[in-house]
Design the sequence.
């Protein structure tokens, strides 16, 4: 490209928010450049200033935020100096943004057509061409029936479709810079893969530069040319993608990478690395390196002198000892490497479990003939797209939903009633849950101590000193301290809150713990600590977990066995490693290949056609045949597939002969 | 309501036999439930019965009273709805600044002032002292619409004062939610000007919840005006019910209360339909 003016330039940018009259810096002296047509990834944990950087690039800071130093240039123009009309012109033509949660980003009371054509109206396109241009742009984001979609309202579209529309609006003006702030967070793995494919496809077609913000390192690895790592509002490392991921030169980057539960790692081998400590509070005065307090290789120099940004071979790092970062000692605690006996007794037996909602024509079978056995001390991972019935299954097990007639649940050999109210106290105590979002799962007006005490009194019936002893034991068990007991949930970070939720779940000494997306609201370093904790607790107490997660890395790390669900049916169940390595069900293959993984960027993806059917229009024959790339015409659509038993405990429901099943490779 | 209808009509000195005969003629000596069943079956077929006090059918009285109340309510409605929404929108746009504070404080203060206080003050200031407006809302027979309006302004103001705070507060809350919404950010980042953002993307979403509030308050405007109508000598449904209650004129009282109930149901239904019309998310049928 002959035009060398960068699409976006941050020159020593500092941004601060005023909170209660005090100025809190969020970005401090960030300098970066994104060349035309380049995709630049910005990573870091929450609170590092990623989104602030994104909004600063569009000069859309919250009312209390302000640029305190430095400049932002888009295509060479200082946007800080722009008068409102010029800024509007810039937003119409040169920059656009797509953010998380497309359902909220679209106006709920206007049709898609109106919202998209507004972009053309602003670009000065003659009114007569609006409709045609809208159809054209919607087709460009691979919406198959633009005319139909234009007449729809946002709530009538799926999340993936909504994000396509948001992307269409963003690229309609062919901007110089496209800011993508967590564009796929919250979407299903298969949908995420589609959206990422689309963005890559569009990049080849357009000359747009991309600022890609994500906490998901694997997504960044797949999408970006260069990556910058933000920590506490400072850019601590910047390099071409491959260098960052293969040879990180900052301990923070190295730490982030080693926190990830990646392929081939499981709880049986070693605990995950964690980054101890917390992000400094914005405004805290730090002499020396901002990361020194949490850094494993820091010494006195790090604590006293702020390192300079050193650049060598296009790899910049703000560290005194960049060469040490790669050799970061993995925090190897004496981990629980106890392998479960393969044939431990079954603690929970699920047979023919079905659950329907509605009556008559409206009747929808959300779960259909589920048969699973959970053994003592094992972790069973449940994976599948949203709508596959994972959470409904969890609710049936907890007794929050009454399963259909004919379903059979057994706990420790005894029949288990459908509703909690009809279960014995021991059974209620024995099956507990940890929710995804600790914020809404904990009572905001109770202290941690009160929550634990109440649970103990209610479920275990302990009082006085015995109860206090139990509180202490639980607190220590989840690595919280006395100090935390007096806190309210709002005074705790996300990771600490999840520890409280886990302590609460363990209060009654459960034998089965259902973990519904236990770490998806948490940062990777905190996630690693929580996963380690869950693994330790399992080794100590022999509790069995049912782990629901869309993050396959998490599932693989923690699970002994995995069940793959689709439209309320189990398509495959087997030992974790064999489910991952294959041969596996074509749906499992698609799920696995759609999850971006580091070091896996070039791999060919198994693409699914179409959207997940609803349970109301459950396909006949094999439920998956409408989207299956290996569907056999005439067979899969008409006849229910047989069970293929590959080895002990690895069962796949599929018409394909065993040797034709896909293998990971 | 306790009390002997015949005694109330004939007065304390009437002969007990005469009272009994009257009660028997009117059927008021029958058990209450029987009387009610008799009356309600008439009401649903359009026969509202005879007034005890006037010895003539209830319907014409009720019709006139409802019409009068509707006029007063309409004046108040036309004044307060735009004012309230406008106030709420302005407050939201200047959130946290003095304009917002003043609007919120004034609106809420006015809401808690009972209408008999504000009504009496208004009569004293504008009716008695300044003599700008008539102190009675009742106009001479055959008065034109403008004269009627002139009479209705003063009684409408206490209602406006009471409702302004509610409506403005709802409008403000809705606006703030919509202004903070992601779709508003999308609109700004598309490069729309601020007025365009507000007009096209914010207002409609912001004012949806306000519609429900306005609907319930409208019923209050029609049915809850006893104090205002008495204070301003206005022959509306409020004063009709009040008089009927004093005179133990049960058919009149029942018909009045029932009409207000029916109006309440009707207004709420209309508001729900309007809400559904404006909110595509709850529009049913014919779309999929």
Sequence:
């Amino acid at each position: 490209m002959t035009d060398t003016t960068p699409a976006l330039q941050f020159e020593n940018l500092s941004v601060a928010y005023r909170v209660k009259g005090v100025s809190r810096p969020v970005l401090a002296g960030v300098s970066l450049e994104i060349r035309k047509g380049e995709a630049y990834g910005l990573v870091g944990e929450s609170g590092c200033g990623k989104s602030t950087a994104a909004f600063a690039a569009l000069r859309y800071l919250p009312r209390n935020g302000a640029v305190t130093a430095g400049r932002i240039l888009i295509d060479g123009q200082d946007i800080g100096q722009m008068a409102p009309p010029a800024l509007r012109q810039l937003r119409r033509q040169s920059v656009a943004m797509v953010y998380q949660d497309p359902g909220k980003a679209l106006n709920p009371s206007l049709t898609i057509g109106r919202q998209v054509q507004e972009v053309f109206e602003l670009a000065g396109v003659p009114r007569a061409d609006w409709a045609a241009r809208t159809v054209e742009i919607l087709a460009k984001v691979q919406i198959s029936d633009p005319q139909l979609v234009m007449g729809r309202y946002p709530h009538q579209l799926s999340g993936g479709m909504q994000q396509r529309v948001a992307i269409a609006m963003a690229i309609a003006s062919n901007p110089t810079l496209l800011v993508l702030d967590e564009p796929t967070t919250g979407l299903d793995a298969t949908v995420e893969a589609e959206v990422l494919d689309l963005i890559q496809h569009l990049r080849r077609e357009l000359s747009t530069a991309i600022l890609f913000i994500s906490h998901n390192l694997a997504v960044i690895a797949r999408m970006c040319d260069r990556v910058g790592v933000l920590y506490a509002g400072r850019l601590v490392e910047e390099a071409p993608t491959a260098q960052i991921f293969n040879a990180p030169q900052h301990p923070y980057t190295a730490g982030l990478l080693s926190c990830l539960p990646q392929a081939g790692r499981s709880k049986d081998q070693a605990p995950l690395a964690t980054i101890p400590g917390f992000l400094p509070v914005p405004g805290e005065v730090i002499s020396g390196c901002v990361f020194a307090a949490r850094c494993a290789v820091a010494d006195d120099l790090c604590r006293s002198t702020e390192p300079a940004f050193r650049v060598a071979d296009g790899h910049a790092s703000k560290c005194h000892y960049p060469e040490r970062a790669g050799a970061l000692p993995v925090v190897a605690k004496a981990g629980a490497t106890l392998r479960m006996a393969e044939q431990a007794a079954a603690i929970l037996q699920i047979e023919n479990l079905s659950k329907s909602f509605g009556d008559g024509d409206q009747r929808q079978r959300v779960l259909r003939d589920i048969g699973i056995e959970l053994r003592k001390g094992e972790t069973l991972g449940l994976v599948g797209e949203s709508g596959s019935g994972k959470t409904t299954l969890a609710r049936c097990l907890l007794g929050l939903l009454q399963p259909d007639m004919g379903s059979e649940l057994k706990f420790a050999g005894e029949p288990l009633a459908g509703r909690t109210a009809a279960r014995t106290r021991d059974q209620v105590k024995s099956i507990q849950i940890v929710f995804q979002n600790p914020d809404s799962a904990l009572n905001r007006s109770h202290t941690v101590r009160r929550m634990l005490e109440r649970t103990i009194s209610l479920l275990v019936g302990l009082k006085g000193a015995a109860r206090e002893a139990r509180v202490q034991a639980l607190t220590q068990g989840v690595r919280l301290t006395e100090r935390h007991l007096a806190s309210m949930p709002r005074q705790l970070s996300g990771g600490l809150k999840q520890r409280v939720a886990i302590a609460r779940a363990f209060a009654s000494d459960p034998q089965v713990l259902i973990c519904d997306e236990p770490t998806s609201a948490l940062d990777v370093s905190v996630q690693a600590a929580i996963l380690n904790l869950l693994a330790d607790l399992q080794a100590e107490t022999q509790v069995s977990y049912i782990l629901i997660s869309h993050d396959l890395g998490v599932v693989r790390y923690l699970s002994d066995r995995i069940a793959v669900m689709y439209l309320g049916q189990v398509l495959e169940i087997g030992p974790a490693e064999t489910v991952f390595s294959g041969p596996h069900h074509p749906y499992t293959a698609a799920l696995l290949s759609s999850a971006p993984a580091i070091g896996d960027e070039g791999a060919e993806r198994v693409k699914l056609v179409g959207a997940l059917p609803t349970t109301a229009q459950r396909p006949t024959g094999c439920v998956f045949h409408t989207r299956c790339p290996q569907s056999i015409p005439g067979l899969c659509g008409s006849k229910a597939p047989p069970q293929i038993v590959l080895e002990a405990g690895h069962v796949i429901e599929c018409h394909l002969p065993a040797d034709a099943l896909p293998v990971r490779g | 309501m306790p009390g002997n209808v015949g005694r109330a009509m004939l007065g304390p000195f009437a002969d007990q036999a005469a009272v009994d005969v009257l009660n028997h003629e009117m059927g008021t000596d029958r058990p209450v439930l029987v009387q009610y069943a008799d009356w309600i079956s008439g009401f649903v077929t359009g026969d509202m019965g005879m007034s005890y006090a006037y010895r003539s059918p209830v319907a014409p009285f009720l019709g006139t009273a409802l019409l009068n109340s509707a006029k007063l309510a309409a004046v108040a409605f036309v004044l307060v709805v735009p004012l309230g929404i406008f106030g709420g929108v302005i407050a939201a746009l200047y959130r946290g600044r003095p304009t917002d504070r003043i609007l919120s404080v004034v609106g809420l203060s006015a809401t808690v002032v009972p209408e008999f206080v504000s009504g009496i003050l208004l009569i004293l200031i504008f009716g008695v002292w300044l003599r700008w407006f008539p102190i009675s809302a009742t106009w001479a027979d055959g008065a034109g619409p403008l004269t009627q309006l002139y009479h209705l302004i003063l009684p409408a103001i206490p209602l406006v004062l009471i409702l302004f705070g509610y409506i403005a507060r709802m409008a403000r809350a809705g606006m703030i939610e919509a202004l903070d919404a992601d779709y508003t950010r999308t609109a700004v980042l598309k490069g729309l000007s601020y007025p365009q953002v507000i007009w096209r993307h914010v207002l409609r979403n912001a004012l949806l919840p306000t519609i429900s509030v306005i609907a319930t308050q409208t019923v209050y405007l029609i049915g809850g005006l006893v104090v205002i109508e008495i204070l301003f000598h206005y022959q509306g449904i409020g004063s009709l019910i009040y008089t009927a209650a004093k005179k133990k004129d049960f058919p009149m009282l029942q018909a009045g209360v029932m009409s207000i109930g029916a109006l309440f149901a009707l207004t709420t239904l209309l508001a729900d339909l309007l809400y559904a019309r404006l909110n595509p998310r709850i529009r049913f049928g014919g779309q999929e």
